[in-house]
Amino acid sequence: MECRIFEIDELPLLNGEVLRDARIGYAMYGTPNADGTNVVLCPSFFGRDHTGYDWLIGAGLPLDTRRYCVVTAGLFGNGVSSSPGNHPSGSRFPLITPQDNVAAQHRLLTEELGVRELALVTGWSMGAAHAYQWAVSHPGMVRRIAPICGAPVSSPHSLVLLSGLAAALSADAGERGRKAAGRVFAGWGTSRSFWARRAHRELGFATREEYLTGFWEQVFLSGPGAADLLTMVRTWENTDVGATPGAGGSVEAALASVTARAVVLPGALDVCFAVEDEKRVADLLPYASLEVIPGVWGHLAGSGGSAADREFIGGALRRLLDSPVDGG
């Protein structure tokens, strides 16, 4: 799908700075209906662009473009939207929070596309964090959310992962740093059972080393540069719906303010975002259910890498979109 660009002259940031000459890379699949009630938003995830949800979008797929208009929006730092590597500020590129990404996406939807209501916001990993943030920042606009393998606030445990990624990316700005970061993520992206079962063979990688080299290193080499990825690491580190203006620093208060119907979709063996943590989140949301993605794929369960995971997630999204939203 063709990448479109939305430009913002000045974007005020949560920390008081201003990002000037900002741009968002996005794509639109399908057509808005007459009353504008069929729009679905998918914020991108770590290191990927607007094409990361292609497995979900299309005629006959869970986000069926015969019924819905799907907008995929790239986060800042992904190498297409404003990032250190493509922005005049370069190494002085500011800290971006999920609140800032949502503010920019809100302007895209309302100013450029004329959208006033979102039937659903869904995303994987960092995309899930932004689904939560959308529901907190714009409760009157968001009817449903489906966060997949992600959280509304970064846990101390996830900060350990991020410190490892940051160390690898900071040690070398070239390919070595990104390859090292890929190997850091490999231990977090799947589960112990995945490795014990040698499930990488289902992806065509005969050995562990082939999988590390051919999948994880390539994931990091095929995306943005190290400086851009570091921007996304900082965004992930600063994920906190409680920091939203009006929430008073309370994650609990922020989640309690959500009016959207939610289906929270953690991976059964996700090391990055544990099921017990996401159950607590679901309990704090006024209109939420928890559906645990089974299997051994861990965090990667949300990426659609296996047919079983695609079927499970697709079914959950279809049921959610068919559910009523009035009064929760």
UniProtKB/TrEMBL annotation:
GO terms for molecular function: homoserine O-acetyltransferase activity; hydrolase activity. Keywords: Acyltransferase, Hydrolase, Transferase. The keyword Transferase applies. InterPro entries: AB_hydrolase_1 (IPR000073), AB_hydrolase_fold (IPR029058), HAT_MetX-like (IPR008220). It comes from the Bacteria. The active site is at residues 125, 270, 299. Its EC number is 2.3.1.31. The keyword Ribosomal protein does not apply. Residues 39-171 form the AB hydrolase-1 domain. It holds the Pfam family Abhydrolase_1. SUPFAM superfamilies: alpha/beta-Hydrolases (SSF53474). NCBIfam families: PRK07581.1. This is Alpha/beta hydrolase. The gene is cvm4.
